[in-house]
Amino acid sequence: MTKIIISPGKYIQGAGELKRIKDHVGHLGKSFFIIISESGHKRFGETVKESFGDSVNIHFAKFNGECSKGEIKRLEEEVKSIGADVIIGIGGGKIHDTAKAVAYYQGLPVVIVPTIASTDAPCSALSVLYTEEGAFDEYLLLPKNPDVVLIDLEAVASAPARLLVAGMGDALATKFEARASSQSGSTTMAGGLPTDAAIALANLCYDTLINEGLKQNWP
Q1: SS3 for 130?
Q2: By residue range, what is the domain housing residue 199?
Q3: 97 and 191 belong to one structural domain
Q4: Spatial distance between the Cα atoms of 16 and 81, rounded to a whole number of angstroms
Q5: How much is the pLDDT for 77?
Q6: Would you tell me which of 98, 100, 151, 165 could form a disulfide with 67, CB atoms 3.0–4.6 Å apart?
């Protein structure tokens, strides 16, 4: 009976962590390719640039809005043209999935920086691909999870409240999904049965939401 748990290489969470992004990911390479939306660049671009400083080569690449094969290929060519050796995705789920796919095809480490809570994409070894028109295309199963997931709580908290609430609702299901998988003896996407640690994390996720979810005084 094989049990498997998969997770990011490193998970970092705290207030203001984007200001320290170089400290967290600088060991991964010397040239960083950052996939980010135009609005994301306006919100976080200067903070990221100040953290890396002038001693590290960084390149911001505008995300065109869809995690499609065409967009992935376009960004791959841009990565090759500048010779980057680390991919960073800053934003929401489609940016995360795009960054993971680009890193996979180029054989590079990937760092995921969520700026909203309403997505499962940051930690998963999966990219959901869409057509250019936004229709579902296919799943791209990846051989490993992201190398680093960096959560800046200030960034997530400053996003629209509806996105935080949506993330909480999605996370509530984790306990029951994990329980169903365990009780049915089903093989997970990791390729084995869920570990006791995975079940404990799913239960902790639920307990945290129940105990802490209503403490925020919403405007």
Answers
A1: strand
A2: 173-212
A3: no
A4: 32
A5: 98
A6: 98
Sole residue written with tokens 């040239």? 31
For residue 205, what are its two tokens? 């996720």
Distance CA 96, CA 88 (A): 8
Residue 194 and residue 124 in one domain: no
Distances (CA, A) of 203 to 125, 138, 176: 21, 30, 9
* Cα–Cα distance, 185 to 214 (Å, whole number): 34
Q: What are the tokens at 45?
A: 């671009």
pLDDT digits (tens, 9 = 90+) for 33-73: 999 999 999 999 999 999 999 989 999 999 999 999 999 99
Q: Does residue 42 share a domain with residue 80?
A: yes
Q: Is the dihedral of CA 149, 153, 159, 160 positive or negative?
A: positive
Residue environment code for 102-122, b if the CB has 16+ CB neighbours within 10 A, otherwise e = bbbebebbbbbbbbbbbbebb
Give the CA distances from residue 94 to residues 8, 46, 91, 107, 218, in Å, rounded to whole numbers and listed in that order.
18, 22, 8, 20, 27
